[in-house]
Known about the structure:
Helix content of chain A: 55-70%
Strand order of the largest sheet of chain A: 1-2
Number of strands of chain A: 2
Radius of gyration of chain A: 30 Å
Low-confidence stretches of chain B: none
Order of helices and strands of chain A: HHHHHHHEHHHHHHHHEHHHH
Oligomer: heterodimer
Amino acid sequence: MRSRFRTFILIPVLLILLGGLFLYSGTVAASPSPVQNLLTTPVTERPGPLPTVYPPAQADNGAQVYWGMCQDCHGDQGQGLDAEWRSTFAPASQDCWGSGCHGEDAPDNSFVLPEAGAPALAGPRALPQFATAFELGTYIHESMPYSPTGSLTTDQAWELTAYILDLNGRNNPELTLSGTNSAAIQVHHKVKLPGTELPGIFILSLFLIIAAVYIRQLSVQSASETGRGNFYHHLHPATIPEAQSKYSYTLGAGGLAIFFSLVLLITGALEMYYYMPTTDGAAESIQVLTGIIPYGNIIRNLHFWSAQLLVITMMVHLVRIILTGAYAPPRRFNFILGLILLVLILLQDFTGYVLRWDEGIRWALVVGTNLLKTIPLIGEGFYQFVIGGAEPGAPTLIRFYAWHIFGLTLVVAGITAWHIFKVRRDGGVSAPPSTRGEKPKRIPRSVLVRKEVIAMITAGIVLLLLSVFIPAPIDQPLVENGQLVGDSQAPWFFLWIQETLQWGDPFIWGVLLPLAAVILLGLLPYIFPNAKKEELGRWLPSGNRLGQVVGITIITIIFLLTLLGGLR
Amino acid sequence: MTKEISFPRRAFLQLSAKLSLGVAGILGLGGLARYFSHEPPGKSPSSYDLGLAADFPASGELIRLDIPAIIYKTKDGFLAYSLVCTHLGCTVVDDGENFSCPCHGSQFDHDGRVLKGPATKELPALRIIISEEGKLILETGGMGK
């Protein structure tokens, strides 16, 4: 038994080591070759048409666009429309303001040049009005070229931004600028991107696993060995019935929910040191966190993925409780506590999602809050209480922030503690009653902790892999009255409500229906027959058949609607 | 024979403690409700300058997503409709034929009438005036109307 446990620990450790080495070597091999930097060396002579470099970097593409559209006015080296640059023009065109093309009576297919000419784009005094590459790129997209304004594609605007940063020596060639990362890039300072962090992440994970194994060893020592119980002894009873600890029965879901909650608390606390709860700064601070701050990306991804996995784990936990009839008295009230936790966690996910304050959340926020307005009588007041104003804005963000990190967290922590306390109060996890004269088999604390450690390590590895390979979403900063690039799809855990909303009156289908579903689930132990005592501790007891059918029907409908919404 | 009413000191103290706690609780909740009942100022009406009426696009229609609204030039003058879906507030988009809502699929025709639910109310018409200098001014009321 013990050697099997060692093997189990050893396999992930080896896998992680190998994976880490593999990824590390991969990142080294993929570093950009110097050939791509040919164009970025300062040009002292007048460049002709630009050589094409393959594969072209973003700034190289920008150079092509610049050469075709921008350099007539802004100069071949971004020096602006100065006398020296104009001296390279044909004599008749050297006075742009007086010429036939851009003078007072410019022809229809041309334009009148503004008195200030065209500003320099490179040099220490250039671009004073822009702080971030996002501001610069947005300006280029909306206001350049001077005529016809707005004729650039989004991609061209980012390519030009990269080229202009390059002219100023502030481009990071390994980064492809876009709306989702450019708010983190400075126009006037060269931003240092973090190097590869994978080895660090994997070594840390390795030590966490080793620590978990040692902690388990601590719990193996009996209380008599150490005189009095150590800290870990107090987290678990000395022995529990074996039937209460079977994975095939519990699915480990309750314990994993606690594990994910702890990861959320730790990573969330770390995020708070960089996140800015302001409408202008929120998405930017997240882009800085994911793009610039060492280990910021992995911390945010862990937070994101723990939150998603927590919702899934809680749903699995709920299904398990229903299909084993475990909510029979005395556990009826704890079932309600669990459902309240599920609703609160969904609110946590939604408030956390809104904190991005990027284009991705625009419609979810509008729809989610307008839904409150449809509640008769109290709707309008409730709406104002939630968003803190007549329309979503800065007060909304700070309220969602307060709920997310404090209000909801406090309530969730309190009810979670109550939920766990009730589990123990109600005699542990539901299990078959002891038959007369026959004592149920019990397992010592050490075996229980080993099971917990195994479940935690497995879940931790899944969490880590998701976080390393699939980044948490972040879009470009939300601009009020902007160009509506927003995602019209609800966050995945509310996709089912987005579906029901299409069926008619928003109050009935968007508020009453979900509420009714949760209330009906909560009433399962109270209005339908419960599993008998001797049936407890196994799957699909006949005593609560009706409850199983009703509960699983509700959950299946929600699941199918979510799927339908996701495929749209 | 009257039954002696016994009301010992301890019971009195307990009752008083519970009563005071209850009153304090109700007062506290009331205070909390008042604290959160502050009504922020409503959305102020705003007006948008659409430029000279003479410069109106030849196509006869103009979409301004920042308002958001669509403005038509007709024989009788100018017409404007809000593009905020009357269902739950997403901005409707022109799909070539009608206006459709990306969030829940409501559809409106070009005069704002509902073609397909879940929306039930038509897109509201907005007030549009021509200023003394010949500029088109679009006015939106409070609360998104």
